[in-house]
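Entry 14. Two folds queued back to back today. First construct below, sequence then structure tokens.
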Amino acid sequence: MDRIKVEAPSASYDVVVGTGLLAQFEELAGPFLTSGRVAVVTDANVRDLHGAALERAVADAGREIAWHVVDPGEGAKSWQGLEALSDWLLEQGVTRGDHVVAFGGGVVGDLTGFAAAIHKRGCGFIQVPTTLLAHVDSSVGGKTAINSSAGKNMVGAFHQPALVIADSDCLATLPNRELRAGFAEVLKYGLLGDADFFDWCAANGAALLAGDAALRRDAVAHCVRAKASIVAADETERTGTRALLNLGHTFGHALEAATGFGDALLHGEAVALGMVLAVKYSARTGLMSENAAQHVDEAIGRAGLPTAISALDLDADGATLADLMRHDKKVVGDSIPLILLRGIGAAFMQHDIDLADVASFLDQQLQAH
């Protein structure tokens, strides 16, 4: 078991990474629970796969769970989903001193965290991530949000969890597609600021994805430590340091919007495509070599992730996708910043991007084979 401390300016908390942690839920989370009923938000798949284990751990401590179960997928992160969850928290009598448990992937964590942020002007919550993506990224750092007609995660709040319990055993039940989508976020940490870790991912990715539990724990712990350091330095993206974590996301969110935020393109798959686009655009503008960009493309492809937007069969051209990028949360006035690279492990934020050039670049990529 690893305990990694996140020292954000607004809150300090532990991220516990290890195996068999669901059975230790009471030992880890008990100090934050104030009553005999624990409000747990999850999706139907996680409830079926892991709900009994959590219920046993809670029952052994003389508590019971009140479940709020949402449908799997991005559709739960909506105004309607937020309203239903908020009403349920009020019906359950959750107080400002209580802690709601987010038990699932990034969708459940984002939705639950945002509901907790606004419930009676803010109550606590605990993250128990069950996907690789949530383990290494979305459960840590306090970003919470829902999607809207304007785009992904456009309505939300910074609200840090009180505790994160990352049980690697939960990853064993993930479908291969979701596991690979989560691995895109693992690769991201190497690509944005740690070339040695990117090489580690390229060398060990196949074994990690095939089920090597030790490699999975090592990857999760490494990524959490990296994110904890970034969050401590720039909790709310004011200095630009934390914005580097959005590598691949500006392109990726536009692709998600163009595909309707559905199963056609998972978030991690969109991030993978976004990272490929970021390195190719960086090479196009002379920031990094074509060989380095191709190396990233090939590493992402070897992980079984998509690398070509032409394969998506989008009903959109480059100008449409570039316009969707205007809805990125980092936009200030008419300036659209983009995370680009000077090399593997050397990401930076480029301001005043020429969207006409981006649109032309995307048109080329849409036609590439």
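Second construct, same run, same settings:
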Amino acid sequence: MTPTRFADVKGFLPENEAVQLADWARDVACLGPLLEIGSYCGLSTLCLAEVARASGTIVFAVDHHRGSEEHQVGEFFHDEALVDEAGNFDSLPEFRRNLQAYDAEDVVIPIVAPATLAAQHWTTPLGLLFIDGGHSLDAALADYRNWSQHVVKGGLLVIHDVFPHVAEGGQAPYAIWQLAKQSGLFEPVATCESIRALRRL
């Protein structure tokens, strides 16, 4: 699998990071389902879906599809093509089209809700948790605190957009990577550009 075949899918996951995400997912898919927080239009979802299909598991894709702070009108990553008739950001129609176009609907379960709400009733153990949701400190901390407990022993916690220097990007993903590293529950495994993995002890 190479993410080049998803070149028409909107997203912010560079090819080398997408390949690495799939490799990590492949290593732990035997331990439990894969879950991502922050699906946007489905680029990372499709990468994980190929792994899930080959491994006999599924992907839970958690996203309210109303966009993070940086996707709103006037912000740097705003895309006018993803605005609905009421003037609201909505990536869900594009996400669903991409799942259908790439025949991924049988291995992806979309959960269209805020991650904090979905987490209140979550009980399923996870082989991989990919955090790529809102990049405010509050949002990133909530994703880490609400979901990391569900990663099984030997499973992976993967965090996107981890930049140690503020000039390179937001600091919230870096903050939760540090929290996980210092928690005694996870150990760092590897890094590829801005994507980092930690294994549950």
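Quick look at the second one. Residues 3-200 form a domain with the Rossmann fold fold (CATH 3.40.50.150). Residues 15-28 form the longest helix (14 residues).
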